[in-house]
Specification:
The chain contains 9 helices and 3 strands. It is mainly alpha-helical. Strands 1-3-2 form a 3-stranded antiparallel β-sheet. It is elongated and about 70 Å long.
Amino acid sequence: MAITEEQRQELVSRFEGLISAIDRDGKDELLEFIRKSDFYTAPASTKYHGNFRGGLLLHSLNVYDRLSEKATNDAGNVFYPGFEEKGITDENLIVIGLLHDICKTYYYTTEFRNQKTYDEAKVAAADRRQVKHDSNGDFIWETVPAYTVDDKIPYGHGEKSVMMIEQYMKLTNAERYAIRWHMGFTEPKEAWGTLGIALNNYPLILATMEADLEATYILEKEEN
């Protein structure tokens, strides 16, 4: 899957419109950092979900949308009624959803790799000596760009997002913990005990974990 440049620009506009709703010191400086970084063009992963230009931006909006559906119960999710009664506001959901993966800025780079190409037109146009064959049919080797990790801010994942946001804008405790632990039980097993304590104190962590997984494995699979 990929998105067009026009679609990416529409996503940028929506992202910045939501960010503008945040009423907090440092928000403007944080947005300026995002604009200068590769956040709007970075992939969400190297080869799994969102591995295309603008993938991180799309994923962040998808996570926000899933969180919002849980908060309003539009998703029919009976586990999270009464977000407002728990003091969770739309501003909290914007911050968590849109910024949970800000740690992926300055994280990826592009390199070139050789891969097999079975495209019939390309194979037919290639020099006969370039054409190979395997169990999948005739192919040629083609040099293509691919994303790889080049972590320029080596500070973890969830904790790195918290650190990067709070260089500009203070987070609430609920935001801080939801972003820190949004990877859930993909964290090292040694951290599960601490994660369990955090979940007991901040159930919003579970909603964020679910929103992240649903965005990755449902929304982004449907969009593929």
